[in-house]
Amino acid sequence: MPTAQYLRAWYKKHPGKATQYHAQYREKNPWIKALRRIKERCNNITSKTWRWYGGKGIKNLLNTGTIKRLWIRDNAKKMIHPSIDRLDTNKDYCESNCRFIEWEKNRRKL
C-alpha cells in the first residue's frame, strides 16, 4: 500500500491521470458516493446536515462491503437516481435498517 506522501507526489506529476483514475473508480463503485455522504452527515460537525444526523446521535455502522451488498440487494444500478434510506429514522445506518430507493420517492417521504 503506497504512503500518502507518495500518492500526493504522484498526483502532482500526473494530474490528468489522477482525475481519470478517480472517475473510473467511481464508475466501478457507485455505492461509494452514498457511503461518503453518510459519513459526512454522521461524523463531520461542520457539515450542514450534521445536526439532523450525527448531532442526534445517528451513527454510521456501514462499511464498503455492507453498502455494496445493499446496492446489489436493492438493484440500485437500475435506478435513475438511487438514494440511501433508513427504514427507522431514529436508528443508525446499519444493514438491517437501510435500503436504496429512488431519490424522488425518498424526498417525498419527508
Which helices and strands appear, and what pairs or packs with what?
Elements: H1 4-13, H2 15-28, H3 31-43, H4 64-73, E1 82-86, E2 98-102, H5 103-108
Order of helices and strands: HHHHEEH
User: What low-confidence regions span 5 or more consecutive residues with pLDDT below 50?
Assistant: none
Cα(first) to Cα(last) distance is: 43 Å
How many β-strand stretches?
2
**Sheet bearing the most strands, described?**
2 strands, antiparallel
Report the helical percentage.
40-55%
- Strand-residue fraction? 5-15%
**Overall pLDDT score:** 88
Given the helix and strand composition, which structural class is it? mainly alpha
Cross-sheet strand order for the largest sheet: 1-2
Q: State the helix count.
A: 5
What does it look like?
The protein is mostly helical. The chain has one domain. It is built from five helices and two strands. It has helices at 4-13, 15-28, 31-43, 64-73, 103-108, and strands at 82-86, 98-102. It has a two-stranded antiparallel ribbon. Helix 1 crosses helix 2. The model has no long low-confidence stretch (mean pLDDT 88).
Please describe the structure with a list of short key phrases separated by commas or semicolons.
two-stranded antiparallel ribbon, 110 residues, globular
